[in-house]
Design goal:
alpha/beta; D-Amino Acid Oxidase, Chain A, domain 2; 9-stranded mixed β-sheet; 6-stranded mixed β-sheet; 11 helices; 36% helix; binds flavin-adenine dinucleotide
């Protein structure tokens, strides 16, 4: 079978990987010069089942509306109306009633996915700065703690254990936080962190060297044209998927939710090693090897614009300086990326209307975490159909 995967971000690379495991030779088509140069370039680095909580809630919707009046909010909605934005927001609100069910669904997928990454790392021996040190969540007041305890009940039902820590336990797990006080701290030992860009590039390089994959540098404009060349296509084009799906008459409700990161180079000995999530600010932080610390967050609904706006970078630097006053923040690399987000937070991994086209896209804020699961699942269904 002549098969092509479109898009060499994390969804495309994991899909390609599982296809090669089934014995297929794959053409991996990518419009950029190298793999993982779009959203899979400099994300928060977390492989985190403990961040499975769906964003669909009235409090988030109200927070989003309030952000129209505050420029330093962690959610920013450009008030200029667009059909895509309105359709997405309407469906986002409609999914609020299913939030608990969605959260459990995402959590189950994430648990399985993280196990798959562990298997890939062990089998393929690729270096992507994988840290098996778990993820810490911390909360600053009673209200946040009560909310976290409610979310824990959903995680319990999905099979994820998030343990409450004392301050002493926290300080022994993550020494850089010694002395800091929180209202509550939770720890998910099974979560991990790693460099998504390194993972994609190392794996593709390995698959090319084993003659299992050909990386083709081209921009796909019409899926019908590609169907003249290939027997099957798998669309993994991130925020580009919606436009391409339209060429075969399909509608994918994916909106680009912009986020930002900073990579602190040479942060020094006092930088944290365990990956962290500050739920109050929705900021995540991961150590990538000895020499880099990644801090990421913010959600901006502003179309496909990828400009790096300094006023969005400043809160990330400020967070870093406040949380870790003893680290070195002289050398910082800012970045912006677009999360390919569905309104109900669930990725799309299924066959399209057209029999020979499949989708693996729409992974939103958890694409690094969920891709191994959706890729394996999609390849299994494609093979057995
Ligand atoms: C600030 C930020 C922090 C994040 N932190 C985390 C985190 O800590 N943990 C986590 O799990 N997730 C995180 N995410 C989400 C995660 O990074 C994304 O979900 C994931 O990278 C999306 O991968 P993708 O393969 O779908 O898209 P992409 O990585 O964008 O890949 C799509 C590829 O398709 C190519 N393409 C598009 N159109 C075409 C075309 N027409 N022809 C050919 N090629 C095409 C693009 O060039 C691109 O390389 C974060 C995202 C952001 C923005």
């Amino acid at each position: 079978m002549n098969i092509a995967v479109i898009g060499a971000g994390i969804t495309g690379v994991t899909t390609t990987y599982f296809l090669t495991k089934r014995g297929y030779k794959v053409d991996l088509i990518e419009s950029r010069r190298y793999p993982a140069m779009a959203t899979s370039y400099a994300n928060g680095g977390q492989l985190s089942a403990s961040n499975s909580e769906a964003w669909n809630s009235w409090s988030n919707a109200i927070y989003g509306i309030k952000s129209l009046f505050y420029s330093n909010s962690s959610v920013i909605i450009n008030p200029k109306p667009s059909v895509n934005k309105i359709m997405w927001l309407t469906s986002f609100i409609a999914a609020i009633k299913n939030k608990n069910k969605i959260t459990q669904q995402i959590c189950r997928m994430a648990i399985e996915s993280i196990k798959l990454y562990e298997q890939i790392a062990n089998k393929e021996k690729i270096n992507f700065d994988l840290y098996n040190k778990g993820i810490l969540h911390f909360y600053f007041n009673k209200k946040q703690t009560e909310h976290a305890l409610e979310v824990n009940k959903l995680y319990d039902l999905a099979g994820l254990r998030r343990t409450r820590l004392t301050h002493d336990e926290l300080y022994s797990i993550e020494g850089s936080l010694t002395g800091r006080q929180f209202d509550s701290i939770f720890y998910t030992e099974s979560d991990k962190s790693g460099d998504i860009h390194k993972f994609c590039n190392s794996l593709v390089k390995q698959l090319i060297s084993e003659n299992k994959v050909k990386l083709i540098n081209k921009e796909v404009t019409d899926l019908k044209k590609e169907l003249k060349i290939y027997d099957k296509l798998i669309l993994c084009a991130g925020v580009g998927s919606k436009k391409l799906a339209r060429t075969i008459g399909d509608f994918l409700n994916i909106y680009p939710i912009k986020g930002y990161s900073i990579t602190v180079n040479n942060p020094g000995e006092n930088a944290p090693r365990v990956s962290l999530l500050d739920d109050s600010k929705k900021i995540v932080c991961s150590r990538l090897g000895e020499k880099r610390l990644r801090v990421a967050g913010l959600a901006e609904l502003n179309g496909y614009n990828l400009d790096i706006i300094q006023s969005r970078i400043r809160p990330l630097i400020a967070w870093c300086n406040t949380m870790f006053p003893d680290i070195d923040t002289k050398d910082i690399k800012p970045w912006a990326g677009l999360r390919p987000m569905t309104p109900n937070m669930l990725p799309i991994f299924r066959k399209s209307k057209e029999d020979r086209v499949w989708y693996n896209t729409g992974h939103g804020h958890l694409g690094w975490t969920l891709s191994a699961f959706t890729a394996k699942h999609l390849v299994d269904s494609l093979i057995t159909e």
